[in-house]
Amino acid sequence: xxxxxxxxxxxxxxxxxxxxxxxxxxxxxxxxKEKLVLGFYWSGHPLNQYKAxxxxxxx
Length: 59
What we know:
Mean pLDDT: 86
């Protein structure tokens, strides 16, 4: 009885879930979520977008 529930049939094999269309996160959104979930930035750093400006100020 239990193992009957695990048997596959053709209908189950052809099942493909549909996902809603989502917008791409901005860099700031992505960084905030990474920091919240992981505790650190993975894909960059918030100050990277100001790197050229900071270098021009020789900071």
